[in-house]
Design brief:
It is a single chain. This protein is mainly alpha-helical. It is built from six helices and two strands. It has a two-stranded antiparallel sheet. The mean pLDDT is 84.
Length: 167
């Protein structure tokens, strides 16, 4: 992390370290071109008490730590799923969901949980997880597409009368 030759405020370092840990800026910044007069900068800090929204005055909160722990479980789930170890991935995603209080992040975990459950042939559980992902993030097409795929697969198996459809 390069911060420049000037003195850097300790809160700025904490804010930038937050980025290294995976946290996004929680403020909105924009500008308006004033031509020869330069630029007008607009910055909105919706939560001045959060270090990622206000590096000069914000603090570190419990949800920062829960997000880090949940993220560790989520990334474990990704690693397990990439190796085809879907039961271990399911366990990791469930732990991430249990810990996380970030709805957009939880939506990702529910989506991946649903996909790993699908890989295990547990279609009813997969559908429930994917429906939860869609409920949390209705604008996200990946979860909706995965839900359609699993519903179609379950329907095909039910039509074939296969006994191996697991709940």
């Amino acid at each position: 992390m390069f911060v420049g030759p000037e003195d850097t405020h300790k809160y700025t370092l904490v804010h930038e370290f937050g980025h290294l840990l995976g946290f996004a800026d929680e403020y909105v910044r924009g500008y308006r071109d004033l031509g020869n007069e330069g630029y007008e900068i607009l910055e909105i800090h919706p939560n001045g008490k959060d270090i990622m929204a206000s590096s000069g005055a914000g603090g570190i909160h419990r949800y920062h730590f829960t997000a880090l722990v949940a993220g560790t479980h989520f990334r474990s789930g990704l690693a397990f799923a990439s190796k085809g170890e879907h039961q271990a991935a399911v366990n990791a995603y469930r732990k991430a969901i249990e810990i996380s209080d970030d709805s957009s992040y939880t939506g990702l975990a529910y989506n991946n949980l649903g996909w790993s459950l699908k890989q295990l042939g547990k279609y009813h559980q997969a559908i429930a997880a994917l429906e939860k992902a869609v409920e949390i993030r209705p604008d996200w097409s990946r979860a909706s597409n995965n839900l359609s795929i699993v519903r179609k697969k379950l329907k095909e198996q039910e039509e074939q009368g296969e006994d191996r459809v697991k709940t």
